[in-house]
Amino acid sequence: MDAQISGGTGVGTTANVRSNLPSVRSNLQGPSSGNGRRMTSKKTRSKKGKRRKRRRSKKTKTNKTPPYLPPELKLVNPTQYRFEHLATQLKWRLQEGRGEAVYQIGVEDNGLLVGLSEGDMRASLKTLRRMAEKVGADITLLREREVDYDSDRNCRKISEVLVRKVPDDQQFLDLRVAVLGNVDSGKSTLLGVLTQGELDNGRGRARLNLFRHLHEIQTGRTSSISFEILGFNSKGEVVNYSDSRTAEEICESSSKMITFIDLAGHHKYLKTTIFGLTSYCPDFAMLVVSANTGIAGTTREHLGLAMALKVPIFIVVSKVDLCAKGTVERTVRQLEHVLKLPGCNKVPMVVASPDDAVTAAQQFAQSSSITPIFTLSSVSGESLALLKVFFNILPPLSNSKEQEELMQQLTEFQVDEIYTVPDVGTVVGGTLYSGVCREGERLVVGPTDEGRFLRLKVGSIHRNRSACRVLRAGQAATLALGNFDRSLLRKGMVMVSPKMNPTICWQFEAAIVLLFHAKTFRRGFQVTVHVGNVRQTATVECLHGKEELRTGERAVVCFRFIKHPEYLRMGAKLLFREGVTKGIGHVTTCTQGRPQDRVWETLT
């Protein structure tokens, strides 16, 4: 933007503000202190030596003076034309960042921390606030730092400001976070504390509202997929159920929504956990590790699944109130060791302060190798505020351009859940992969066991438990289908536009990597295949160019579904398993066959 205020689409260039500051100080102050020592030293007073000293003294004076900033580059009383230009620029950045932008005041475009005086900083923040009001946004000061210069007695500061759009017409930013971790690591309890606003009593009271079945309440173990929401308003304040709000009120007053996907931790529910990761398309994954047990049970497996599906992951070490400080540090060291192994190649970053949380959120979105680590307690509330700061600043992975490209495509909705609601009828839940879905729209759903697609009409749409008229690509929602026969539906189906002319797939090829297999992987072997919301057993028909596969080897493999055809997309990520056998890959070709009667008329 200019030398005094710079920013980006959701993430600015000062993710390294705190780390850059000492180096800038040393660069600016180093020559001064070094020349002071040299000028006081007693050496031979030759003409050559005097000339050197004169040159050094000139350099010292130059370095002590802070950089001069032209008046027209400061946001102090800008002209009306300049103000309109800045406001237009802010509006564009909010659109690119899907409603969010981070500005750094007092930082040059090249990242140099110049700083502003106290008066100029106040005036610049005032101008930025006026700009935000003009485009319908609020600003929140994230952090402030001082920049020191030897010859400058007045303190110079840099500031980092979050600009967020005020919610309108349910156009809030929605991020999905999958919650992973071993059984009894405190996943559901942590989500209960975050979304309900009340600390746990140490016996699992906070998690009771998250459970969906009686046996979950009795055992305290999650066996199904549940969803919880945490909102942030335009000023960065938490919006949850603590004020006896309904889900609809939370959506109305939130500019940013975090949707938590609570997954099962026990190994016997692994297929449910994998389905949640592949079907609901989470933006991020939160791996919860108990401080007193460390890396145990399914922790490594869940970490491997998230990495195989290329979901950015951060770690929360819970139950620190039960352990001594040394135990918590040992658990953190274990995690750092695992993350640095060749298979992971991650850079762990322990978050210990609000400043660390801001830096972690920005660097986490910029680099997939950064892995923030939080240590907290759901009983004492220790460091919970740091996790909320992290969620508040965490930017989306996709920009507005990618979102618009998906919305321009034909409608495709993945069916993940099926319900029957009294007085409403059949309801399906899932994620809109592409296009736009509106109330009253006519779609086709399939494929059925016979390979056909059925016509239906979308009645009403609910998103985050509140009514919604329009559903856009990437958003999760439930659709009411009226009196459509539920027995004709199943998980793994898709609802698409009739213009798409959908086709079915009995057999497909995929380029795979065999992660682990006890013996040899060969023709005739049966595995459970996960591709998006599709989960079905398939048989290995052939391995191209090879007779068999061993652990770590790659090949193009032909699979055939054994029960019914599916709808697959080219390039879709694939994960297969059978016992201890595991592999990943992507779909390369589909043997597509058109059903004889592509569409049935149904009672809608």
- Straight-line distance between termini: 54 Å
Please count the helical segments: 13
Level of helix content?
25-40%
Q: What's the number of extended β-strand segments?
A: 31
- Categorize the overall geometry: globular
User: How can the largest sheet be summarized?
Assistant: 9 strands, mixed
Q: Which spans have pLDDT < 50 for at least 5 consecutive residues?
A: 6-48, 56-73, 594-604
Rg over C-alpha atoms, rounded to the nearest angstrom? 28 Å
Question: Strand-residue fraction?
Answer: 25-35%
Structural class: alpha+beta
**Residue-averaged pLDDT:** 82
Biased composition (Polar residues): 12-35
Biased composition (Basic residues): 39-62
InterPro entries: EF-Tu_GTPase (IPR050055), EFTu-like_2 (IPR004161), GTPBP1-like (IPR035531), P-loop_NTPase (IPR027417), T_Tr_GTP-bd_dom (IPR000795), Transl_B-barrel_sf (IPR009000), Transl_elong_EF1A/Init_IF2_C (IPR009001)
Protein name: Tr-type G domain-containing protein
Question: What does this protein look like?
Answer:
- The C terminus is likely disordered.
- By secondary structure, this protein is of the alpha+beta class.
- It is built from 13 helices and 31 strands.
- A 9-stranded mixed sheet has the order 19-18-21-14-13-22-16-17-31. An 8-stranded mixed sheet has the order 7-6-8-5-9-10-12-11, sandwiched between helices.
